[in-house]
Amino acid sequence: LDADNYETDPCLKEIRRAENYSWMDIVTIHKDKLPNYEEKIKTFYEEHLHLDDEIRYILEGSGYFDVRDKDDKWIRISMEKGDMITLPAGIYHRFTLDENNYVKAMRLFVGEPVWTAYNRPADDLPARKQYMKFLAEEA
């Protein structure tokens, strides 16, 4: 993807159409740009899940998404400018900045955005049960 020209990037436009990502915004995570920065950073790093997919497209900067594998071990995913990730509903994850302490990311949603994070443990939620069923079927 062309992060320098995300407003006009035909590949991004096609992804948004194909996946029905009808809503988006841009968030900048930096101490001078994000209100309640320290609190937000701690919240992002708390292990949690969402009831919907989490889609992020890195426009500037870099950071890490940590996700749990099927054996409940952490996998660290390095994200930098031009990278897009979709974390499925029900997967435990967290986000942290790297040593640059800066990222600007597009947040994409199907329909209206839902920001609710469910901190671990949240194994009884339907999204988590569905995700675990998916993992079992893949094995």
UniProtKB/TrEMBL annotation:
Its EC number is 1.13.11.54. InterPro entries: ARD (IPR004313), ARD_euk (IPR027496), RmlC-like_jellyroll (IPR014710), RmlC_Cupin_sf (IPR011051). It is a peripheral membrane protein. GO terms for molecular function: acireductone dioxygenase [iron(II)-requiring] activity; metal ion binding. Its cofactor is Fe(2+); Ni(2+). It catalyses: 1,2-dihydroxy-5-(methylsulfanyl)pent-1-en-3-one + O2 = 4-methylsulfanyl-2-oxobutanoate + formate + 2 H(+). SUPFAM superfamilies: RmlC-like cupins. One of its GO terms (cellular component) is nucleus. Pfam families: ARD (PF03079). It is found in: Cell membrane; Nucleus. GO terms for biological process: L-methionine salvage from methylthioadenosine. Keywords: Amino-acid biosynthesis, Cytoplasm, Dioxygenase, Iron, Metal-binding, Methionine biosynthesis, Nickel, Nucleus, Oxidoreductase. It comes from the Eukaryota. Its main location: membrane. This is acireductone dioxygenase (Fe(2+)-requiring). It comes from Cisticola juncidis. The lineage of its organism: Eukaryota, Metazoa, Chordata, Craniata, Vertebrata. The gene is Adi1.
